[in-house]
Amino acid sequence: MTNAMTNATGDEAVTHDTTIRLLVVDDHAMFREGLARMLEKEPEFVVAGQAGSAAEALAMVKQANPAVVLLDVDLGSERAIDFALGARAAGFDGKILAVTAGMSDPEAIQLVQAGVTGIVHKHHSISLLREAILRVAAGEVSIEKSYLAAVLRSMDRTRKPEHPALTPRDRAVVSCVLQGLINRDIAIKLNISEGAAKASLRLVCAKLGVRTRSQLVKVALEHYKDQL
User: Fold this and answer.
1) Which residues of the chain have a pLDDT value below 50?
2) pLDDT tens digits for range 15-49
3) Domain spans of the chain, in order of start
4) pLDDT at 65
5) pLDDT for position 156
6) CB under 8 Å to 96, separation ≥6 — which residues?
7) What's the per-residue H, E or C state across the chain?
8) What is 168-227's CATH topology?
């Protein structure tokens, strides 16, 4: 791939032995028709339809049955997100490749969250666009590096956090709780003061986000059983 773009696997662009049906969506007729003509020259593609708005594209997507929708981000009074959300709600399971002259990081994140699997700049060559289409058609992700970092940061923020690691003291305290021991007995078993036992119990509860012994037992059995 060129330096301008990357994908989730880092592999070279894949090739296809079947024709990929495309729907080209852009509100500028000259650009849309010119792009469609160039894509039709590529043996891998057939342009199944053209649309000048999100509403028009949504109305024809079922009939056109595209494998990949080339979606202009700025559709005049509409935005690419209007089509992306509407298409998914209507059951469209093809791929969406956003084509843009430039957009904000939040908009790129919003598009990816709506199911767009590729973002490419309009100023790139037709050969680079071809590679991006092949990638998304194959189920890969092809996002401009200028947006990729923001998308990955967003994924990190929304990813469910891993369960925190338990220290040896945490494991010992949880093990005692699983045995039904009260604080005094925990202190005796671990050879610490009762105050230290209480503090250790509070700390492990806070770490695991629980408030009661019963909640602690539940979390311990679900996620830490092999450590106790």
Assistant:
1) 1-16
2) 445 799 999 999 999 999 999 999 999 999 999 99
3) 5-158, 168-227
4) 92
5) 55
6) 68, 69, 71, 83, 84, 87, 115, 116, 117, 118, 136
7) CCCCEEECCCCCCCCCCCCEEEEEECCCHHHHHHHHHHHHCCCCEEEEEEECCHHHHHHHHHHHCCCEEEEECEECCEEHHHHHHHHHHCCCCCEEEEEECCCCHHHHHHHHHCCCCEEEECCCCHHHHHHHHHHHHCCCCEEEHHHHHHHHHHHHHHCCCCCCCCCHHHHHHHHHHHCCCCHHHHHHHHCCCHHHHHHHHHHHHHHHCCCCHHHHHHHHHHHCHHHC
8) Arc Repressor Mutant, subunit A (1.10.10)
The end-to-end CA distance of the chain, in Å, is 48
Q: Which CATH architecture has domain 5-158?
A: 3-Layer(aba) Sandwich (3.40)
In tens, the pLDDT along 88-106 reads 888 898 999 999 888 888 8
